[in-house]
Design a protein that fits this description.
Helices cover 41% and strands 15% of the residues. By secondary structure, it is an alpha/beta fold.
Length: 396
């Protein structure tokens, strides 16, 4: 039975002899519906399923229905108790270390860039996952106060963790370059994506989703925040170059601010309003449960980001038998392997030619789809969990 326990309650351990007692910063598993939350939920679910001999303690400021847990005696959820009910952020960043000691936790994993202050003095082994250091590379795309806060937290965690997990070789390189983290301290453990993308969606389900979002019969797909780094303007510029030669509409899933306004101004100036569909602007947005159908109904995924920590939409597309055109920079070749078509992300001409080739060459499409399904198996949840469990075992 999964236990939900406030920290002002004493936990009674099962008489079952578990292996390690592992604690996690599970805030984002319960509270975040974007990439960091997905990483936390996917990894934890795979660990629960693959390694039931261990005892898992999920430390979170709040719970939610976002992360349904299996009914198991070795999984415990803890929220702040006592005075820390009124100061949950302080509990998570600092005081939680006292509760981890009381619970007899052997190892603590900060799933998203952070570790509690002073945890290194408790004798508890520590692991932290670093997803990216994009704010260091592109600080002008963030508020100055956010850059300062992130830098302080990330540096502290990287310095004090026993092992730093990087989700790509690109992130490992950035940790060495920006924070001088010794390479011997960093382990690259790739992430998986939602297993829903591995399941074939029925034609009826695709039709229902197509009707729900008023999708074109054939469409290109772009997924991600509409910000400068994601580079949507190059895509729409490429589509303008293809006008009259290839006129497939583009469906965009993602929102943004000033950069999105810039993209829309370009679209309007070129008379392309009917060709680009921003479906995230619907009153209810886009439901996560509909994403596999949207991917599997698309013709080509366009992901020309100039920099990412991993590039999860690439993996989602590979599982969806959706050919991918992406950037030849950063970690994209890691995620796409030999299955994607790579371009200079700043060249609208390169992008246009890639879109045309991948859209019209059926032999190329079939080869990319087949290679994509093979490459995606390198990122199965059980493989990603096994790599992380190897890190845990190395510390015991």
């Amino acid at each position: 039975m999964t236990a939900l326990i406030g920290m002002n309650t004493n936990i009674q351990h099962s008489t079952y002899l578990y292996g390690m007692r592992i604690g996690f910063d599970a805030k984002r598993a319960f509270r975040n519906n974007t990439g960091l939350g997905q990483y936390s939920r996917n990894l934890l679910s795979a660990l629960f399923a693959g390694y039931p001999e261990h005892e898992y303690h999920l430390m979170t400021t709040k719970t939610s229905e976002m992360f349904p847990l299996p009914d198991a005696d070795n999984i415990h959820v803890h929220t702040p108790g006592g005075m820390y009910k009124a100061f949950p952020a302080l509990w998570r960043s600092n005081a939680v270390r006292h509760d981890l000691r009381r619970l007899g936790v052997d190892l603590y994993h900060g799933l998203s860039h952070e570790l509690p202050v002073g945890l290194n003095r408790t004798g508890i082994k520590t692991v932290v996952t670093m997803h990216d250091l994009i704010f260091e590379r592109y600080p002008k795309q963030y508020k100055p106060i956010d850059v300062a806060v992130y830098r302080k937290k990330f540096r502290y965690a990287a310095e004090h963790a026993d092992v730093v997990i990087a989700i790509s070789r690109q992130t490992r390189a950035d940790l060495v370059d920006y924070y001088q983290v010794p390479e011997r301290k960093i382990r690259v453990c790739y992430q998986s994506c939602n297993t829903g993308f591995q399941q074939a969606v029925t034609a009826e389900a695709k039709d229902a989703v197509c009707s729900k979002y008023q999708l074109p019969e054939r469409y290109l797909l772009s997924v991600g925040s509409v910000i400068e780094r994601k580079n949507l303007l190059t895509v729409v510029s490429a589509l303008h170059r293809l006008k009259g030669r290839l006129d497939i509409p583009l469906v965009v899933i993602g929102t943004g601010g000033d950069y999105m306004k810039q993209v829309k101004q370009y679209i309007k100036a070129q008379g392309m309003e009917g060709q680009v569909h921003f479906i995230s602007e619907r009153p209810c947005g886009v439901a996560g449960a509909d994403m596999p159908a949207i991917y599997q109904g698309a013709h080509v995924m366009l992901y020309p980001s100039v920099f990412e920590g991993f590039g999860i939409p690439i993996l989602e597309a590979l599982w969806s038998s959706l050919p991918v055109v992406t950037s030849n920079l950063s970690c994209m070749p890691e995620t796409g392997g030999d299955a994607a078509y790579y371009v200079d992300p700043l060249s609208a001409e390169d992008m246009a030619e890639a879109i045309y080739k991948v859209s019209t060459n059926e032999a190329l499409r079939a080869d990319m789809i087949a290679k994509g399904l093979v490459h995606a198996r390198n990122f199965l949840p059980e493989q990603c969990a096994a790599a992380v469990m190897d890190v845990y075992r190395s510390l015991m």
